[in-house]
Specification:
This protein has 82 residues and is of the alpha+beta class. 63% of the residues lie in helices and 18% in strands.
């Protein structure tokens, strides 16, 4: 993944747009990474993966059933007491 200073991204925005069409770019400020610029296609691919992940988690929860009111209350009280 390429890296670029925030100032360079600002000054060469059009060029950065061309670059991110082929690979993401890490944007750094004061020498530390603060953001990633990526193509819309890559963003949509990542969102699809995330949607699939949460969909599978939801299906698993449906298959395993839900906690009863008593179980839920005990879980919450346990978390609050921790």
């Amino acid at each position: 993944m390429k890296e670029a200073a925030a100032t360079d991204v600002k000054n060469k925005f059009g060029q950065m747009l061309e670059t991110v069409m082929s690979e993401p770019v890490t944007i750094e400020k004061n020498g530390r990474p603060v953001a990633v610029m990526m193509s819309m296609a890559e963003y949509e691919r990542l969102m699809e993966i995330e949607d699939r992940y949460w969909g599978e988690k939801a299906l698993k929860a449906l298959e395993e059933g839900f906690a009863s009111d008593a179980e839920t209350k005990a879980l919450i009280e346990g978390k609050l007491g921790a």
